[in-house]
Amino acid sequence: MKNLIKHLNRIQVLSSIIFLLFILTSCNDSDNSKVKENKEIKTAFNLEKEQKELQKTIIGFKSALAKKDAKAAANYYTVDAVFMPNNAPIITGRDNIEKALAGFIEGGFTELNVESTWIEGCGEYLLDTEKWTLSNGEITLIGKSLVIWKKEDGIWKMHKDMINTDTP
Questions:
Q1: Which of these, 149, 152, 157, lies nearest to 125 by C-alpha position?
Q2: What is the reported pLDDT for 23?
Q3: Integer Cα distance of 122 and 77 in angstroms
Q4: What is the rounded CA–CA span in Å between residue 25 and residue 129?
């Protein structure tokens, strides 16, 4: 059973990587026959503007954690989101992510700082690597994350969120 769970987790991670590669290749404009079409797409998608919108979401998520509101924090995930926390099983769906966030909050981990280190995107997706710290006032976790953001209800929400700590 344990091997089956490991195998299923590997499949989930592999699926996320394939999804990421799909998004990256869909944004590729190397086909010279579509130069005009690509220029129109680039004009329609303004990465700088979307980064500013994304920062609003990050601020809202941090605020929800600070207020110890797991439901509000979970609403910054898409309905069908996947959360892959460090040393834990994969969590799917907003309701289950809310329960996981409630666990962080119960442990007092409500002080979050996030710095995006790389953002790329097109259309309704953004790919983001981040450095973060999460503290409960006594213990501070330091880590990094890879997030695929998706527009849902007109705002950027976490769609695939994989976190990992730098500290044991």
A1: 149
A2: 52
A3: 19
A4: 18
List C-alpha distances in Å: 25 to 58, 66, 72, 103, 105.
26, 37, 33, 37, 38
Count of beta carbons in the 10 Å neighbourhood of residue 88: 11
Q: Is the pLDDT of residue 41 over 80?
A: no
Contact assessment for residue 100 and residue 83, using Cβ atoms and an 8 Å cutoff: yes
Q: What is the DSSP string of 19-49?
A: HHHHHHHHT----GGGHHHHHHHHHH--HHH
Terminal CA-to-CA distance of the chain, rounded, Å? 26
List the domain boundaries for the chain.
46-165
Locate 155 and state its tokens.
Answer: 């705002």
CA distance 93 to 160: 10
43-98 pLDDT per residue, tens: 578 999 999 999 999 999 999 999 999 999 999 999 999 999 999 999 999 999 99
CATH architecture of 46-165: Roll (3.10)
How far is 140 from 151, CA to CA, in rounded Å?
Answer: 31
CB 76 within 8 A of CB 60: yes
What 3-state class would DSSP assign to 61? helix
In whole angstroms, give the CA distance from residue 126 to residue 56. 14
